[in-house]
Amino acid sequence: MKKVEVAVGVIRRNNQIFITKRPQNLHQGGKWEFPGGKREADESMDQALVRELREEVGIETHGQLPLLVIEHDYGDKQVVLDVRIVEQFSGEPHGQEGQLGAWVAISALSDYEFPEANKVIIEKLLERIR
Ligand SMILES: Nc1nc2c([nH]c(=O)n2[C@H]2C[C@H](O)[C@@H](COP(=O)(O)OP(=O)(O)OP(=O)(O)O)O2)c(=O)[nH]1
Ligand SMILES: [Mg+2]
């Protein structure tokens, strides 16, 4: 099965992260996520993240810090998530495609339901604020 490469943005302001809810009809729908999406063939990961954050949450990204890369097999789909922290951006993030959005304290992220692959992302963020 082909691996789907996904650029994922952890949008951070102080100790809060902006998350959105995946539309029900999509893969892993109904769960919360860090905004992002598939890299297109003619793009770098950086470019893919800038485009996805513009399309999904309406911000302009000015800086990306690598956090981790996760490979996960959902059975029906194999993904490689390239997760970056975004602290430098302009505009106020909001669900630009009608999806719910929320600023959540890092310590409260574990109260939200995320796709399975996200467990390690949340663990790593928690380690950072400990
Ligand atoms: N954006 C995002 N995707 C995630 C997360 N965790 C996780 O397993 N995924 C998976 C779900 C999807 O299979 C894939 C992302 O694809 P996507 O549906 O967001 O892609 P996209 O925005 O380009 O949308 P489209 O091409 O389907 O319109 O990565 C996460 O935190 N954020
Ligand atoms: Mg997406």
TrEMBL record:
One Pfam assignment: NUDIX_4
Instruction: Spell out the family assignment given in the record's similarity comment.
Output: Belongs to the Nudix hydrolase family.
The UniProt keyword set, sorted, is:
DNA damage, DNA repair, DNA replication, Hydrolase, Magnesium, Metal-binding, Mutator protein
Q: Which residues form the Nudix hydrolase domain?
A: 1-127
Reaction(s) catalysed by this chain, per the record, are:
8-oxo-dGTP + H2O = 8-oxo-dGMP + diphosphate + H(+); 8-oxo-GTP + H2O = 8-oxo-GMP + diphosphate + H(+)
Superkingdom is Bacteria
**InterPro entries, per the entry:** Mutator_MutT (IPR003561), MutT-like (IPR047127), MutY_C (IPR029119), Nudix_hydrolase (IPR020476), NUDIX_hydrolase-like_dom_sf (IPR015797), NUDIX_hydrolase_CS (IPR020084), NUDIX_hydrolase_dom (IPR000086)
Enumerate the GO terms in the molecular function aspect. Answer: 8-oxo-7,8-dihydrodeoxyguanosine triphosphate pyrophosphatase activity
Gene encoding the protein: mutT
Q: What name has this protein been given in UniProt?
A: 8-oxo-dGTP diphosphatase
Question: Cofactors per UniProt?
Answer: Mg(2+)
Q: What does the record give as EC number? A: 3.6.1.55
